[in-house]
Design goal:
The chain is mainly beta and 672 residues long. Helices cover 8% and strands 53% of the residues. The strands form seven sheets. The chain has a 22-stranded antiparallel barrel. Strands 3-8-9-6-7 form a five-stranded mixed beta sheet. The termini are far apart. Keywords: Cell outer membrane, Membrane, Receptor, Signal, TonB box, Transmembrane, Transmembrane beta strand, Transport.
Length: 672
């Protein structure tokens, strides 16, 4: 559970501060060393995100998936959406405006991905207005410069605090040495979709390492989407034509020297909304949104002669959202008085983090850290030509202290214990523990038993948004919490095959969801009744020296309200996922196939979407001519017709998705 006892809070803070002083002092007196350097170069056998230090995957206190740059290229992944859809326990949905993450029995409609914490090289990218982030083409970093992604399932608040509710996703970008020249990537495909990325990277003789990247993306989208709910002569007979376009631009830079790394990113997305959501005029090109994110990050890491690993970070972030919404103000409803109703949200924040990791007493690895974030701007305004409906202008701050001890009890038994205390200037404090037992009873067999807690504080949008037209602010809103219990088996079957199985239960209290008030018909966020999700995930992974790679997974998840056993909306009960990548086969081409079966999802109107099977096929030639790569991707290979549930702001019960599309991608590396 998440604790809010004031005496425990004071005790936790004082103890953490005392231990911080003790760890640093002890580090100066003793001589311990880490074995991290060897692990750092063991590719996917090591992971950092689960414990904030590098360790073997089998020793990490979580169920983890790792996606490499090679896999991104092989399978033709275009975004984080494509990646998550191949992983056990995850599902996504798309409402033609945003893509949303669902995990382990939950896919909360109206959520802007605030229940998953996303990091870029350890830098938190969830913004401070909606607590969310983009996961599709508007991802903060272009997918072509990603080196690897670590996906850590389960409650992560014991180390990461707010938003680490269902998972933590850490995107690790490439280094300059990984490119060593200028790389140009261009693609074209269905729906008049085009993208270009130019990257430069190198490591110089003086030790400086540099990575620069810029990209552009644009697409006309689906030019004719039919919604039966709008099938009327006044609304173009339900056909949304040429109002699904999207544009993105992205810039990223990283420079490092010794233990210092400076990085920065800029992203801007423009997306038209074709669904007529929030009672806007259907099929209007006016209704669109712009999202813009910027960040600067300075990170310093050093390993003292005493063996203490010091990580310090200073950062600044900015987020801006602009929305234009077409409303018909005419009494007759004949579209004679369409008004552009506008809104702007602007967030700015800065912060710092310090982490010390130290081996103590031969069998303890202690991690102690503190984090501070100051939200210097939390502003939201909405207006039309007649009046201002909303004007939020606030500031806030939060800080957290965390302590973790990784204890080698025996040669085959590790106990990982962690706790974090967070203070919010406008919301209750939270204390979240985690404990994990990792046992190797026999060679090649690992058992993990994990209990963890997490919380998510209501954000500015959920607390204060009140435009008097579509939505109102709640009278009261409490943080939501989760208690997670998980048993994991990791079994190496032979040199090529590995089996991973998870059995879990998640208990959520005070879940925050967007609902419609039956009295005034306005949208409002409220805390729901408690929900329990139970599930199992089984995955078989195969890797062969010949170049073949595969995975086959089965997931079952069941989520119900505790008070009435009603099924939660937008959750597929069953998923089967299959991925297969080949070595070079014919004419220099390799092939990669990913398939996903998903059972039906319950909609808000208590209907069910159809189950579906998606298949994506990518052909790749990594050397058409010197340094030129070519890939051909076909997505939704069998042209499956499928839909996702609509949210409270939609008239549509279900949102239809795209049929078959294709992409042709070229990548050329110019050595310098």
């Amino acid at each position: 559970m998440v604790y809010r006892n004031s005496k425990l809070t004071i005790k936790t803070v004082c103890t953490s501060m005392l231990l911080a002083h003790s760890v640093v002092a002890y580090a100066d007196e003793q001589d311990f060393s880490f074995d991290d350097e060897a692990l750092l170069f063991s590719d996917i056998e090591s992971v950092f995100t689960a414990s904030k230090f590098t360790q073997k995957v089998t020793q990490a206190p979580a169920r983890i998936s790792i996606i490499t740059a090679k896999e991104i290229q092989q399978y033709g992944y275009r975004s984080m959406v494509d990646i998550l859809n191949t992983l056990p326990g995850f599902q996504t949905s798309y409402d033609r405006s945003y893509s949303y993450i669902g995990a382990r029995g939950f896919g909360v409609l109206g959520d802007f991905n605030s229940r998953v914490l996303m990091l870029v090289d350890g830098h938190r990218v969830n913004e401070n207005i909606y607590s969310g982030m983009l996961i599709d083409n508007g991802l903060i970093v272009n997918i072509d410069i990603i080196d690897r992604i670590e996906v850590v399932r389960g409650s992560g608040s014991a180390l990461y605090g707010n938003n680490a509710f269902f998972a933590v996703i850490n995107i690790m970008t490439k280094r300059g040495r990984d490119i060593q020249g200028v790389q140009a990537v261009a693609s074209t495909g269905s729906q008049n979709t085009h993208s270009t990325t130019i990257s430069y990277g190198d490591r110089f003789d003086n030790g400086v390492e540099l990575l620069l990247s810029a990209s552009l993306y644009e697409s006309d989208g689906n030019d004719n989407i039919y919604y039966q709910e709008f099938d009327d002569p006044s609304t173009n007979h339900g056909h949304a034509r040429n109002v699904d376009d999207e544009k993105n631009e992205n810039v990223f830079a990283k420079i490092s020297y010794g233990g210092l790394t400076l990085s920065g990113g800029y992203q801007k997305q423009q997306k038209t909304n074709p669904t007529g959501s929030y009672d806007t005029v259907f099929n209007s090109p006016i209704t669109k949104a712009w999202e813009q994110t910027k960040f600067l990050d300075a990170k310093y890491q050093t390993l003292l002669s005493s063996g203490a690993d010091i990580n310090a970070r200073l950062f600044y972030d900015e987020y801006r959202y602009t929305g234009h919404w077409a409303y018909d103000y005419s009494d007759a409803g004949d579209l004679s008085d369409i008004v552009n109703w506008q809104e702007i949200s602007h967030g700015q924040w800065w912060g710092s983090e310090l982490t010390v990791t130290k081996d103590l007493f031969e069998n303890h690895r202690v991690t102690l850290g503190g984090e501070y974030r100051n939200n210097i701007k939390e502003k939201s305004v909405s207006w039309d030509i007649y009046e201002t409906f909303l004007d939020i202008n606030s500031t806030s701050y939060t800080w957290g202290l965390y302590l973790q001890d990784n204890i080698q009890v025996q040669d085959n038994l590790v106990i990982n214990v962690g706790i974090r205390h967070d203070y919010f200037s406008e919301i209750d404090t939270s204390t979240t523990p985690r404990i994990a037992a990792i046992w190797n009873p026999i060679t090649d067999t690992t058992l993990k038993l994990i209990y963890g807690t997490a919380y998510r504080a209501p954000n500015v949008y959920e607390l204060y948004y009140d435009d008097e037209v579509t939505q109102k602010a709640p009278a009261q809103l409490s943080p939501e919490t989760i208690d997670s219990l998980e048993l994991i088996l990791e079994q190496k079957l032979n040199a090529n095959l590995n089996l991973v199985a998870s059995l879990y239960q998640n208990k959520i209290e005070q879940l925050i969801t967007l609902t419609t008030d039956s009295i005034d018909n306005l949208l409002v966020f409220k805390n729901q009744d408690d929900i329990t999700a139970k599930g199992v995930e089984i995955e078989l992974q195969g890797h062969w020296q010949s170049g073949w790679n595969t995975s086959l997974s089965y997931s079952y998840q069941n989520s119900e309200f505790d008070n009435n056993a009603m099924t939660v909306t937008n959750v597929p009960q069953t998923q089967v996922k299959f991925n297969l990548a080949s070595p070079t086969l014919i004419a220099g081409f390799s092939a990669a196939l990913s398939m996903q079966y998903e059972s039906s999802r319950k909609t808000i109107q208590a209907n069910n979407t159809d189950s579906y099977i998606l298949a994506n096929l990518t052909l790749l030639n990594t050397n058409v001519v010197n340094n030129l790569d070519l890939s051909i991707g076909i997505y939704n290979l069998f042209d499956e017709q499928y839909s996702f549930p609509g949210s409270e702001e939609h008239l549509q019960d279900q949102i239809a998705q795209d049929g078959r599309t294709f992409r042709l991608r070229f990548s050329y590396l110019l050595d310098i």
